[in-house]
Structures are given as C-alpha cells and as structure tokens.
Design a protein that fits this description.
Elements: E1 26-29, H1 39-55, E2 58-61, H2 75-86, H3 109-121, E3 125-128, H4 132-144, H5 160-168, E4 174-177, E5 184-187, E6 196-199, E7 207-209, H6 217-227, E8 232-236, H7 243-253, E9 259-263, E10 266-267, H8 284-289, H9 294-302, H10 317-323, E11 334-335, H11 338-351, H12 354-366, H13 384-394, H14 404-412, H15 431-446, H16 453-467, H17 471-483, H18 491-498, H19 500-518
Parallel strand pairs: 1-2, 8-9, 10-11
Antiparallel strand pairs: 3-4, 4-7, 5-6
Helix pairs in contact: 1-9, 1-10, 9-11, 12-13, 13-18, 15-16, 15-17, 15-19, 16-18, 17-19
The structure holds one RNA strand of 77 nucleotides.
Amino acid sequence: MSQRSDSSTPPTRASDSHTTTSGVARTRFAPSPTGFQHIGGYRTALFSWLLARHTGGQFILRIEDTDTERTVPGAVDAIIEGFKWLGLDIDEGPEEGGAYGPYVQTQRRDLYLRYADELIAGGHAYRCFCTPERLQRVREEQRARNEPPRYDRHCRRLTPAEIAQRLNEGQSYTVRVAVPLTGKTVVKDILRPAEIVFENTSLDDRVLLKSNGYPTYHLAHIVDDHLMRVTHVLRAEEWIPSAPLHIIIYQALGWEPPVFAHVPDVLAAQGGKKLSKRFGALPLLEYRDLGYLPDAIVNYMALLGWSYDDKSNTLSREQLIAAFDLDRVGVAPARYDEERLLWFNGYYIRQLSPDALAERALPFLERAEAQGGLPDSVARPLDRAYATRVLLLEQERMRTLAEAPGMTAFFFLTETLTYEPQALIAKHMTAESALNGLRRASATLAALPAWEAAEMEARLRELVTELGLKPVQLFTSMRVAVTGRTVSPPLFETMEVLGRETSMRRLDEGIAALAAHAG
RNA sequence: GGCGCAUUCGUCUAGCGGCCCAGGACGCUGCCCUCUCAAGGCAGAGAUCACGGGUUCGAAUCCCGUAUGCGCUACCA
C-alpha cells in the first residue's frame, strides 16, 4: 500500500495510523437527528463503514443531539433503519451499546462539562456573559464596517473579580474557546496533499458550551471521538473551515487528533448546489419504497467520490470491503445521477435468484393499488409460485421493483381485457387477415396436446409460413390479444405461464373484439 | 466582504512527468441478435484535460496567477 510519506506527517504517534490503511480503523458516523438522512449523508457513512470493515476495525454510530431545539422525534429510528436496510452493520451505537457509551450526546453532558472546566482551568477557554442581543449588535456593526463578523472577545478580557461577581449574580454564560492570538494552525487532511494553513487571527472564539449547559458540536465531537478512540474522522467538507478550531482544542486538551478525511459533497441533480433536504434529496428510506435494492444503492454510492480502478463498475459488498482505500477517495464534488442509479438497480435486479426476486418484489405487487400495487380486483395474497414465474419473465426488464405491478398486471387480471382494436392489427395487415390469423392460431393452439412454449412456437411458426405472413405480424396480433399490450415478455413463455385456459379465452376475446370492429 | 475547498467527455470517473492527439461506466446514436420490449454483443459520437503563464528534452500530471463553482462565516450540526 502506498503511504503518504512526506514532511507533513503529523507529530509522533505510536502507530502509523495516519497512513490510510495500515492499522485498524475505528470510524464513526455522527448525525444529528434533525431530519432525514439522504444519499449524501449515507455515502459518507458508507465510506466510514467500508474503512472500518476493510481494516478489521469498528464502525460506531453516535447521535449528536445537542441541539435539543431542532431534534426531530423519530429521526434516530429512521437513521438506524436506514443502516439496517442498507446492510451496514453497526458495532457500537445507541442500540448496540459498547465499551465507550453512551452513544447519544445528550446522555454525556457531565463529560463535556468536565472538559469545558479543564479548558477553562488551563486558560484555553473562558466564560462569556454576553447576551444574544449584544452579540447580534456587534455582528451588525462589523458587517456595517465590512469586517468579518467575529466575536469581539469582550469577555476574554474580564478580570477574575469581574467573572466572580457575574457568577455570583447568577448571570448565565457560555464557554468559548480562547483561540491563540498569533501564529497559524495547520490542518492535515489525508485526502488532500497540501496542508491547509489557517492564520489564527482569522479564527473565531466559538462557543463550546451553550448557556443551557449543552455542548456545541465543536466540543462534543472532540471529547467523544477521543474517548471513543476514533482513529479516522470522515465528514463532509463543509467542516474544513472549523477544522483548525478543532485542532486547537485537541492541542489544548493534550490529545492527539484523529486522521481527518473531509469527503467531497454530493451535488443535487439540478443546479450546482449540495444535495440537501431543500435541494433534490430524498430520504434514503424513500428509495426502499420506490423499489430500489440496497446493493444497488451501496454500489452506486461507493462510486460517488471513490473508484477502484479504470474499469470496475459493479462491485459486490465483499469486493468493496476488500478494495476500499482512502487513497482512492477523490476530492471533487460528485453530482447525483438518477439514470446511473437506475442502471445499477436494474443490474442488481437481474442478479437476483428467483427466490430473492419473489421475496423482494411480492410486497410491491401486493400493496394496495393506490400505493402502486396490482389492481385491487386481484386477490391477495398472491400465489407465490405463480408470481415467481411471472416475475422471472419481467426480471430483465425492470429497473425498479415498483415497476413490477404495472408490467405484470395482465398476468393476474381475471376480467376481460379491453382492446384497442387497431392494435390487434399488425403492420401491413388488414382486419381480415389479422382476424384470420388469430382464428387459425386459436385452432392450432387448441389442438396442442401439451401447453408448452417450445411446442407452441414450433406449431405457430409453421402456421406463419402457411399463411404467408411474417412472424412479427401474427405474433403481434396474438400478443395484443393475450396481454392487452403491444409490449410484453416473449409471447410463448407468456402464454405458458398464463396457462391454457386464460390464454385461449383471451385469444377468443381478442377475436371477438376484432370481429366486432371489422363489422 | 473575509476565509477555505474544488475544477478531465452531458454525468460518475481512470490518470499520480513520457504507456494519453486521454481509458472505463451511465446516458445517447447505429448495427447485430430477435415475435414486441428489454437483456446481451459490436461499433460510434462525445473532453482544445477551466483559462493564462511558467518549470522540463517532454505536463492532464509539478509551480504561480486568473476565472468559475461550492462551502463556512450561529449559544445548528
């Protein structure tokens, strides 16, 4: 494995975990339960999971719910359900527990308080008694002067006596990090060759502990990642600007930072914006209802920003785990492309065994008509053996499971099909010749001893020759009569599955419809 | 405004100084197969490697600048 060996190798570390794949990686996905997670979020989670699995490490799920105002009930369950559906197993998390729990931040308050105190004691943080009103006023003034809006560090200059007095008065306060006033902070991102250097003077004394006693992301994730022994932090690139702040806090606490990998955004299909709830993103679980397969989603997501080589396209989960390497994660944003996802989905549907196909598609057939299922006139539950044979005929034509009902309805309908008479007449045929062809075909099939596709085809092709037609002419008329559609799986296999009785009845109904039309 | 990240076919990408007048995949076009539609096979169109300067015998690959896009700029994450 290639290593990023250059002068930017971080300070001393016992192991060489700053290289991409040597060593066991403990990774985490740390969403905040403020809404649904979409492909973009799960793509980052997938990379983390893949890295953990590739190195034989652990994958942790941690819920960052410190913004209690924005927490949405049910969001955690949905996030976890998404992981289950995708088949990304979690080693430590709210449901699994683990040696470094709890894995929900609101249950770890005392920890953050303790480290906030430690930072204050060390002079790396300070209490800020400023009111929201003052802060806003300061920002507005700065903006008016065309200055970057930053906290003016008013409370950083408070004397011990002043602080004691305000504390005594019971004034509420936040805790802010005391960013070094000079120097630079270097952020190392393993995905990017160059160090990212920030002037400390450009940094803000961000709030670490809110006045309600909950930590902000900046404090909480650092405490957690360190205590949970996380080795690699994969997160969205929007975190790069605050990364120097995090480095400063790690240093203040005397902790070795983990390896950072800021992964590129996934962009919405339309416009150049980041995929988000507002721009083109669907909740992941929505894809389940739309008939997508987890394997397809995983394969598709893996290739958004990561690649294996110059030709591999479809990779199984096992191959993904074996091949995944941070070295091959790119840095340019990738656009969400539904056509490509659809292709992957069709591919994975085609790979399904008959049993697996039935297992996955049956729920789509059986759900209510209003939900996209088969017409309500079709009795549920479906005969599984019959449904499986039907599904097999349409398998290579489906791009999503949700397409199954529309494609297979004619296999299940018991009522008489409605025909577009004109459709029963193939190209370069007249109503008379079409009618004659159908009648002869009906008679030929009626005389068949066994209802078997190969036999039907042999006899019917003889008939085609005898009538001086082209196969497409007779078979098109028959297809419309038997299926009610101009597009269907191969005619003879379709009739075989449909059965003698139904096939013959529809043929006759088609003949009747055409006869009525021809007058 | 400030700070930061990014920039190869429409899209996802390969490429880490000569193998590239740039390879693969999706999509698109045509042909083959063929009872329709798919699937499959084959072929093709499609990228002045954002632009401009360098460095080098040689640059998509290294350096600098410009442009454009995106992100951050909350007691949200």
